[in-house]
Amino acid sequence: MSRRDLYDVVVVGAGVVGAAAALAFARDGLRVALVEARAPQPWRADAPDLRVYAFAPDNAAFFDDLGIWSGVVAARAQPYRAMRVWDAGGGAPLVFDADALARRELGWIVENALLVDRLWAALAPAGVQLHCPERVRELEQDADSAALELESGLRLRARLVLAADGGDSQLRAMAGIDTRVRDHGQSGLVAFVDHGRPHQATCWQRFLPSGPLAFLPFEGEGGHRSSIVWTLPEAEALRLRDIDETAFLLELDRAFDGPLGPMASVSARAAFPLKRQLAETCLAGRVALVGDAAHVVHPLAGQGVNLGLRDVTALRAVVRDASRRGTDIAAPSRLARWARVRRSENALAAHAFDGLNRLFSNDAVLPTLLRGPAMGLLGRWAPATHALWRRAAGI
């Protein structure tokens, strides 16, 4: 096999995590191909994407290293300087404050479509070979490489293949990796809402017996617009998605209980089912799983895409070290430790978010009496709040 016939890395799936992985490895001088079923629609400032992320500082630094973060910020990225979390059952709020943590900001609220748009614009100049629209039909592996046969008949062979094709990953199934799934019986309702008082560059989250309701500050409208993520039982989420605007705003006002004043208007609404899903392993031969292909977590902490990008940065460090040593970048023995560490980190996060959701999403007497005061006590212990934020921020 000639060097020309062999890629260093082939990435399947070109969402935020997959496109970032392809760009990162190309920036490191590797020969990279990227396979994606559908090209994304161009980002438009006048049509904000309902899917937004609370982007952490470590991943902002990663995107800065890739050369695209300044373009994201210039287009639209809302920094947030505080987080306030409280329980509807009572007790003091848990507060994270940028000044107290000696930070200019705690993170940024960014649209999925904007991140994908800026990543895709950087792929071709970096030398990434993009195959789109295209799907994987077959996977074969031997000791030295993995080969993908695409639906067009094209065959790609690589030292390392990354499955970044989402929670329903076909490549994960082809690699023979099973998953453990827990259906939460809940859905996440998302929309943009305009409200009477400014958001104060703050993320607000109120725990209700039905599930958490988060308001994430969004750029524009003089600080009077937020993105909401409302966790609800599935049937209730669908009902609230479909009722008229006036009725929806009344119910949202009642659920949030006033910190941002009366709700003035709401955008189109969407709902998506929530589950916890963990792959049994992140590695099978020369196929590595990253992002939602490896783990799907509850959105209450806004960590999904952050965890996926941390999969990539950790893998990049391993590959860089192998390249410096002149050894095989994807030898299974080399990647085994990466796979164990990432599986452990992601499982810990997934179970923690699941536990928090189960603790707060009920109206049982004892948890209701204890959780609010416990949260307030935690908020008054500075070392604990600093440690929690540093873990979420990846620093």
UniProtKB/TrEMBL annotation:
InterPro entries the record matches: FAD-bd, FAD/NAD-bd_sf, Ubi_Hdrlase_CS, UbiH/COQ6, UbiH/COQ6_monooxygenase
NCBIfam families: Ubi-OHases
Organism annotation: Marilutibacter aestuarii
GO molecular function, one term: 2-octaprenyl-6-methoxyphenol hydroxylase activity
Keywords recorded for this protein, A-Z: FAD, Flavoprotein, Monooxygenase, Oxidoreductase
Designated name of the protein: FAD-dependent oxidoreductase
Residue ranges of domain FAD-binding in the record: 7-322
Cross-referenced Gene3D superfamilies: FAD/NAD(P)-binding domain
An individual GO BP term: ubiquinone biosynthetic process
Pathway(s) of this molecule: Cofactor biosynthesis; ubiquinone biosynthesis
Xref: SUPFAM superfamilies: FAD/NAD(P)-binding domain
Family, per entry: Belongs to the UbiH/COQ6 family.
Domain of life of the organism encoding this protein: Bacteria
Essential cofactor(s): FAD
